[in-house]
Amino acid sequence: MIRKFLSKVFSRKESAPESIAKLRVIRNKQHGIRASQIAPCALKITGNLQQAGYSAYIVGGAVRDLLLGLTPKDFDVATDATPEQVRQIFRRSRIIGRRFRLVHVMCGQETIEVSTFRGPSATADDNEEPIQLTDQHGRLLRDNVFGTQEEDAVRRDFTVNALFYDPVKEEILDYLNGFEDIKAKKLRIIGDAVQRYREDPVRMLRAVRLASKLGLQIDADTVKPIGDLAPLLQNVPPSRLFDEMLKLLLSGHALACVVELRARGLHHGLLPMLDVILEQPLGERFIKLALKNTDERIRQDKPVSPGFLFATLLWHEVLSNWNANQKSGEKTFPALFKAIDQILTLQHKKLAIPRRYDAVIQEIWSMQPRFEIRAGRRPFQLLTHPRFRAAYDFMLLRCESGELDAELGEWWKKFLAVDNVEREKMLSKLSAPKRKRRRRSKKAGSNPAPATTSSPSITG
Ligand code: ATP
Ligand code: MG
What we know:
single chain; alpha+beta; Beta Polymerase, domain 2; cca-adding enzyme, domain 2; 8-stranded mixed sheet; 23 helices; 50% helix; disordered C terminus; binds magnesium ion
């Protein structure tokens, strides 16, 4: 069965290389991972499953990260127990997913994903008409066929992601030479690259993200087809692309990933607007700065708001619509609100940015012109806005990128640093000579900057 599957994976009429599916057991002395490095919750789950007579291993990213000397983000478990059998063992658990059914087991505050070994997704018998599991481009639509551990290794994406660690025996099972690849810092796809990308085009994005994040070099055969197959990303459901994009942007290596995506032609169809943005000199600098800041925050373990990040990625689109709306006669604020609506509506469709981020994005954007009104009580009012900090950071990025005068950013930095007496002085210094003129123009109705925006107000 496994041979048959492998010959399908290694489609180009050549048989699977000998190293494939040749099990190598790597003992503790060689790999150096200790059970104490595994999250207690994952240890408990593998232990309980094994006691119940099933096999159970830590799999995927966690084993890979530990071997690379990194701290895993999460610990996934793979087992030969079916989701229903897993569910019976753990009271606090539930079966999730449709395309890929797995069990979420809760212990304490943690949730561990437990998946049953998956097998080949085509029918085993070559004489049978294959059931419709792929779309016309070869993309897998279902991946719910259970299989053996070897089959489970082979259906994974990269060799470094296909290692099984048994925390009880403290040994690693390696069917695909993943251990050697990790040592050589190589990211190698399992099987025929073209076929594996056709099955799931997101693997191309994963290759770029994992290589940047882990400092691995993508193997030549693995990288070669990416440019040609990039358009297949257009067939991937937008919500899945969004999830992958978010992982990429929050990987701590967003800038390197975006540069690499561009080099490989992968941003077309992924972030359709990134094309346009990266070609604008101001926009490119702005996005680079934003990504660099995000990467630094993540590496320092500081929180990062996806809403803020998406606000930066789309800002220059908003800016260009804002300018266009003003040119066609709209006033500052209505022109901006209209631009915000236009860009968000477009991005809901194209990028599938979930609506839960809208409020933050809208607030950050719509507060921007308020930083330029340094008169009366306005700056004080702005300080009390619950989203002030994010909007302020955003404004500083605009200054740093050269879009706004650096003086504005410096003024605000100082305004924040001093006490209220000093703030009053700063304001009177700025507005005293201009006040008369402003008043008059206000009467004429040319500066009706609203104190509040039309966006919904959120706290926290
Ligand atoms: P990260 O550190 O970002 O979590 P990861 O490799 O653990 O990286 P997950 O999305 O958590 O990524 O996936 C867990 C495991 O599932 C992977 O290590 C890999 O074995 C397998 N996997 C994930 N996505 C795919 C895919 N598109 N095709 C095949 N196998 C996949
Ligand atoms: Mg993971």
